[in-house]
Design goal:
- This is ABC transporter permease.
- Keywords: Cell membrane, Membrane, Transmembrane, Transmembrane helix, Transport.
- It is found in: Cell membrane.
- One of its GO terms (cellular component) is plasma membrane.
- Its main location: membrane.
- This protein is mostly helical.
- It has one domain: MetI-like (MetI-like fold, Orthogonal Bundle), CATH 1.10.3720.10.
- The chain contains twelve helices and no strands.
- The longest helix has about 40 residues.
- The termini are far apart.
- The N terminus and C terminus are likely disordered.
Length: about 290
Amino acid sequence: MKLGNTRVASGTAVDEAREPVRRPAAQAVRTRRQVPGFVLSWGLFLILIGLWQLIVRAFDVSIVLVPAPSDVVRSLVDGLQSGFLLDHMWATLKEILIGFGLAIGMALVSAGLITQFRIVDKALLPILVLIQTIPKVAMAPLLLMWFGIGMTSKVLTIALIAYFPLLVNSILGLRSAEPEQIDMLRSFGASEFQIMRRLRLPSALPHIFAGLDVAVILSVTGAVVAEFVGATAGLGYTIQATNFNMDVARTFAVVVLLSVIGMTLHAVVVTLNRWLVFWAPSRKEHARDL
């Protein structure tokens, strides 16, 4: 009996001895899990900005080569206060929104036709894949010659760049509906339009939003590419002008604005995804992490 008590006591003593060792480790893991991902990302970003500022000032790097973050912020504030950067940002933003909207319309209509009609799938999809293999940077000068230096050529360039990833995701989404569910709706007399509206389209929303997330970032890239080729306004045009004048701080300021536009549009897509595709846990967790 004493031996049993000794065993129990010794076991308790061992557990108590191990307890202080286990608790800090568990608390550390719990603390890491409680820290949001964006806090870690922004913390690392601020550290890198601080190192950038320190290195530029410590080694007296020329502002023509690499400006300090403080110089970039000063140039950004001056450009916004004068309205110079705001005018060019608005010109680029209009091109992005119109081109992105055009890409959405073309992709959804094309995906609907391809998934509903086998002959369209066989005839149209190979042509679209062939067009996608053509570098859009090579298409931009042609669009400029055909449609002029105005907004039309920029919008079409953006739409072409953003179109294909959205098309592919839309096709995958519309084809993701379960055949058993389609057969059940048909057995109840549902038309193809009703099946599309009630089943195929809701099933496709997670895939469509995944395509939107990619396409909206590509739209920003497409706007800059189009303005590089030929423009009289816009942030891409401003980058070329400031590079020609060797105003590197203003060039960095424009890059910051482009990043803000891209992140804002990405956040809008993620928020809409969270509201509309609330039944997809993986997408919700992804949106929460961002």
